[in-house]
Amino acid sequence: MSAAVNRAALLVLAAALLAVPQFLPLLNAGFWTNVVTEILIWSLLATSVNLLFGYVGLLSFGQALYFGFGMYGAALAVTHWNAGFWGGTLAGIVAATLMAVVAGVLAVRLTWHYFAIITVVFSLIFYFAAMSAKPITGGDDGLSFSAPPVFDAFGLKLTLADTVTQYYVVLGLTALCYGLLWLILRSPLGLRFEAVRENDRRARLIGINVYLCRLTAFILAGAVAGLAGALFAFFGRYASASYMFYHVSGEATVWAIVGGVGTLLGPLFGTALLIVFRELVSTVWENYLFAVGALTVLVVMFAPRGLAGLWSDGLAKLSGRSASQPDPQAGAAEAPR
Known about the structure:
337 residues, mainly alpha, ABC transporter involved in vitamin B12 uptake, BtuC, two-stranded antiparallel ribbon, 14 helices, 3% strand, disordered C terminus
């Protein structure tokens, strides 16, 4: 039963996301199209946190570093090398991935709070470096640029200046990223990730290279964060060193935990809940962050497995099963956990 419900819910979610640019303007709420676009981008950063924490057991507070490298990779490629949209996006992903390789070689040798600390240290080092290299990065003033067209051929020109085009480009790339992660997490590599998360000593005993698994996950997470950074740079036509500060990583961690770590779409739901709530409350109360913090605490207290866990528990009760009892038909349909 729950497998069928999950499939139906996924189809409803896909249909709702596809209808956003057409439906919201009918409600005189076209502004929310940009908000949903932002949610999709930020959910990728939360997903990069979730990939490490939820599937490998490594809590990183440095994902903003790769987000920033993605931003600057895209912005500098467009500004100085006349790269198009796709070239700039690829440059952002490559820059973030290479940075993740450098940091990961050292960071994944550590675990627990030592790993969290070294990720923060890397983030701070490059944050201050970016702030100091103002002729290149613009420092805290940032680097503005004009976004190149997404497609310009055969008499058809699509640009990010059009809100609808921008939304569907971001939606398409976000969906592609989630689809690739779904395939990876269902593969033998994904099973190795989970084995390392559950017990790294036993994983070593059965022949798994724990260091290589963690490094692979770290690099993949850096690439996902780099894609988020590149898309955010094109979304705002702007790159700033301030987005490399560790408080951005902290927000992404909160979004992942609220949504449900160890689930594929949990970060998307957590990001959507907190950003939509923030936008609604900020229109009526200038101290809206107190309300956002209170909501976060309530979710963590009453839904410790996040929104995805709350959904699973609800389906378990509806089908008459305990929350811990697996659904025999759910294996092929549910998102990897």
